[in-house]
Each structure stands twice: as C-alpha cells, then as structure tokens.
Amino acid sequence: MDLGERKKKILGAVIEHYIRTAEPVGSRTISKLDELGVSSATIRNEMADLEEMGLLTQPHTSAGRIPSTMGYRTYVDRLMKNYEFSVSEINRLRSLMELQLTEVDSMIKELTGIYSYLTNYTIVGSSAGNNNGYIKNFHMVQIDRNSALLIVVTDKNIVKNKQIYFDCDIDSTVTEKISNMLNENLAGVVKSKINLEKIYEIQAEMDIYKSVLLPVLNFVNECIESLDNSEVFISGASKLLDFPEYSNVQKAKELLEFLDNKENLHRMAASVDNADVKIIIGSENDAIELKDCSIVLSSYSIKGKGTGTIGFIGPTRMNYSKAVSTLKLLTGQIDNLTSNKEPEGEK
Amino acid sequence: MDLGERKKKILGAVIEHYIRTAEPVGSRTISKLDELGVSSATIRNEMADLEEMGLLTQPHTSAGRIPSTMGYRTYVDRLMKNYEFSVSEINRLRSLMELQLTEVDSMIKELTGIYSYLTNYTIVGSSAGNNNGYIKNFHMVQIDRNSALLIVVTDKNIVKNKQIYFDCDIDSTVTEKISNMLNENLAGVVKSKINLEKIYEIQAEMDIYKSVLLPVLNFVNECIESLDNSEVFISGASKLLDFPEYSNVQKAKELLEFLDNKENLHRMAASVDNADVKIIIGSENDAIELKDCSIVLSSYSIKGKGTGTIGFIGPTRMNYSKAVSTLKLLTGQIDNLTSNKEPEGEK
DNA sequence: ATTAGCACTCGCTTTAATTGAGTGCTAACA
DNA sequence: TGTTAGCACTCAATTAAAGCGAGTGCTAAT
Hints:
2 copies of one chain form a homodimer. By secondary structure, chain A is an alpha+beta fold. Chain A has helices at residues 5-21, 27-31, 40-52, 69-79, 87-95, 104-119, 172-186, 196-205, 210-225, 249-260, 262-270, 320-339, and strands spanning 56-57, 66-67, 122-126, 135-142, 147-154, 159-165, 232-235, 278-281, 293-302, 306-315.
C-alpha cells in the first residue's frame, strides 16, 4: 500500500499529538484538527490502513492509536519538519556560549548539565578520547560459591567491574589463576596491540578453565573496546521520572539501573558511527532495557583529542525534531568553543 | 517516664524488625520473638507507653507501630550494637584493598562505586579539597520575564547554576549589570579573602537592585562556601528505588531530583563536622526533601589534600549498625591506601 | 469516495462489601 | 501489682460489581 499525502498528514498528526499527550489518539481528535477537512469516519478508515501497514498500533480494541517503532521511524525519516526555536529559546541557549571554560572535558559535562536543566531532557554522553589506552591491572574478588567480581583498572584509573557467574563452584585458586593470567597477558598492553587472536591464545592456554573463561573474556573485551572513550556521564536522569511512561516504579528502576552502569553508557556512546545525528527508536535498540526508549545521538570532535558523543534519551514518544535541533546546536557550540583552542595536555 | 530494660528490648526489637520488613510491627510479632517471654497484651501496654514517650508512632489506629525519628535516635545513641561482618563479607570488602589506584580522587569515587554495588546502598561523597579556591567568573542568562539563570564557574571549572526568581520584571540590562558587578568584585578573589562584609559592601553599592540582589547573593555565598569541597558524586542512586518507601514515583522523583543537584550534595557533605561518624535521621535533616531519609556520614582525610566526606543515604528505616560499620571500614581503607602515598600535584 | 449512524468493546473509575491484622480496654488471675 | 486472656472495635487493603465513556468497525445512504 502506498503512503498517500493524506495518510502522511494523518500519521504525522497522530505522532505529534501522541508526543504531546502520551495518550492514544482517536479519530475524532484528528478530524477536529483542521488541516484536512474530513470526518472522523474517514480518518478511521485511513488509520485502519496505517495500522495494517504497521505504522500505528492499538493498545486494545476500542482505544485510539499509538505509533509503532516503524511509525516513528517513518516520521523521523520522511515526515518530520525542522524544529524552530523561539527567539527566547535561542537567546537562552546562545548565552551559554559566553561561558569561559578552559578544560574541555569539564566544559562539555557542564554544558550538558545546563542543557539538561533548560530542556528537561536527560542527556548522556562521553568525553573525547584518544586511542592508546591500556588496562593497568585486573582483580578478582570472590563473592559467592559460584560468582566473583571482576575489576578492571584502566590507565586513567577508571575502574570497571562486573559480577561474573560461573556454572560451577569456584575457590580462590581459580580467581587467582584467572587474574594472574589476565595480568600477565593483557595488563599494560595498549589497545591497538590487542586483537581477538591474542585473546584466543589466552583461552587456549587456560584450557582447564575454558568453560568459566568465556564470560570473563567477554567482559574484558568490552573493557578494551571502551578504552578510548574513557569517560561517560549522565545529566538529569531523574527527569525521566517526569514522563508518565515511568510512573511505574519497576519500569523506572530498570531504566535508571541500566543507565547507572557506565558500561551501558559506553556501549551506547560507541554505537554512533558517523558525524551526523543518529536516532535509535524503541525496539531498534540492542539492549532490551531500552526497548521503550529512544535515543538521539550525535558526535562532536575536538581537534587533537578525537571524538566524543552526546545524546538525549527519553521515551519513544520523544519530541524528535526538537531533540535533533537542540543537539545540533549543542554539538555545534562545542565545536565552536573548542575549535579555536589549542588542545590542552592530558590532565 | 523511664526507659526500663524491657522497654529498651521492645523498642530495639520493633526497630530492627521494621528495618527488615518496612511493615508496621504489631504486638504479637514481638511477643513471638522469644527474648522476653511475655504475652502480646503486655507488649501492647509497653508499646503504648513507648508511643506516649514519642519513640514509636502508629500510621493509623489498628496498625502496628513504626519508629519515630526520636525512636531511631534513641536506638542509634543507646541501643544499637556493633554490626558484625560475616567472614565472607569481610573477605570481599578487604579484597578491594588490592586495587592499585594512584589517583586519589578517582580511587575514592571508584571504591565508592564498588561498595555501593556490593552493599546495595546509595553512597554520596565529596573528594578532598584544598582551601584556596576562587570563582573564575559569573554569568547570567535571562530565562523569563522575571527569572534568570545564574551561572558560576570556579577555578576548577566546576560550573554551578541556579535559577533566580525576581519579584519584578527584568531585562538584559539588569542581568548584565548584576553579572558585571559580581565579576568585578568577586571573580578571581580567593575564598579566604571574601567575607560577609565584602558582600554587604556590594549590596550597598548596588542600591537600586537591593531587592533583587538577595537571592543572587545567597547563591553566590553558597558557591563560595562550597569552594573547597570541589567535587561531589553519587553512586547507585537507582538502588533507592528498591526500597518500598519509594514505590511511589512522586516520592522517588523528589528525592532523586534533590540528589541530582550537586549543590545539595555539597551542603550535605559540608554538614559533617568532626572526624567521627555522624548520623542524621529523618526530620533531623535540614532539607525538607530528606525528611524521610537518613544519612550516615563520615569524613576521611588525605595528607596534604584536606578532608573529604563519604556517606550512605537511604530511608530512615536504614540498617544503621551495618551502615556505620561499613562506613568505618571504607574510610579506614581510604586512610590506609593514601597514608603511605605522597599527595599528587593538582591534575 | 465520503459520511452519518449505531451497536459493540473494553479499560478506567466508582462504589460497596469483605477481610484481617492489630489495637484498647476490661476482667480475671498469680 | 504486674500479667494475661478475651472481646469488641477500627480501619487500610483487597475484591467484586456496576456504570461510564472514548473509540472502534461496519453498514447504508449520499
């Protein structure tokens, strides 16, 4: 079926209304919305089509429609207009440029915090990183009969940790052996010198512990991957609780817990590939915890320091056009503020 | 009325039971609790006495009792026994000492994160600070007809901001004038050279804006106060949502929002006065947002760098004895790890 | 192709009834 | 005099039923 002009208008209207209200939107609501002067019955027919096409869904019979991930995707890719900042908004955001911050990382973090405050969005990001990080050392702390905490310390003294569950009982000789092995083979080796082969080598060497080694190496690999974007941060996490979709504490807790974990932020930040704005909608997210979230990500680059990432996170019902525009302004500001500055030495 | 031996036992039993279950505890529950072999009726009488003394309260008639702030206070000061770590607990925590972290601030933050992970408590803290901070510059960004965002940048490039509401309409000349004045008089002046007199002077000078100046100066004063403890952090904030007292999103949001604001954390950290453990229970807190929270705070000191603060935060129904013991272990560990290290230069 | 009309669906809200944990009080007992 | 068994009473929380109303799909007329 084809997406005719009128269907586009209706889809757009449904999505924009839903973004504002968080309530399923019915045919009458749309029909009263001037624009296209047709009756609710006509809208109903069109909406039934849109549902068949997978762009809208009904939470239950006899409820209005809400957009599906595909619906949002269509909207974002083909329908969405540029958000126009009001004069006062633009003034407010522009004024922030006056800030005379010299330390780049701190500047970005704080700029982010102020944006979060002014826009009421939650912002996640990573600071610009270089490419020669290494892991300083590994530690393993036994927790239960069959689990241990693996702690990884990077060159920047960033500590990452993860609880590893084994499928058999372990004792301190096991944890010691594993951590020794990791320290001997991987500690101090810069990222660029580590590849999968090296890791396979280790696995072969540790034949006996093969079965228990897999989760360990997975985590180690993750840590190595995230070495260059060394610091991640989040601003205004509690703003998520303003959204009715998180009026259920269980939901809120799952998301906040997910965001509390720096590893997850790292993975998110790493997923942005090029310099443009990337939008990840609902079920398009890899992490199951984010299946009801959308993320609008963009990268910025700082001369001599590499690239970092900044993005908004919120419910799928996010004001995409505003988020994109704001994000562009924000990254543009960062580029502006740093482009005429010499990169400072590592702190 | 006197707090007899039996009343003490009952009070302790009620509090400890409530700490575990978060449910009002009734007389029968206590009577079944061996210890003192009396019937529920007797317990009822005693509990009525304890209520009269202000140590217990009833959420409603026909419900069990819950401790009041005063009840917790009595418990903490006079009844509480030392928490005994189990062997596995102590092993687990001790192992963390092996971490070879060199940068003190980072170490403390990360140690804190791991403790939060292992104990399932939320931890707040501040890093050790020096005493010659200054404010680098001030900015004011108009937001509405009658409010503006005051932004303060410190020597460490920490940015603090607060929305200031005026009781009259303002325009950009006002905000400019105020920020100019602040920059001229206070920017670059180290903390020790600023006193209240100086601030009064400024107020006199700015006669015309007297009325609008008060909130501005209050905030500036706050910033100056917090200059030495320059960095605050929070670990495991989402763990608060595990507690049934925050199953109400509104409540949770209020608290998390409060903790999102670094100013508030600063104020909390600043409130610990001496080197020992300080416990602030429920309504003893200054901030209304914390009236249902308790905080167990302690300071640590690092040679040559001054003192910092670390503490647990949770609902009043907190396991005080465990929190105190854990905190002592944690600060002890910090002291241990840093005492034989030369302080490093400012980063 | 559009629309008015209508029967039908189903989540949400309101109200009423029921349950049960816990209390205070009284009277009996050691 | 302190303790205890017993009982009527209270009140939040749970459950069930009833009613509401927004919204749909379908049909027949325009």
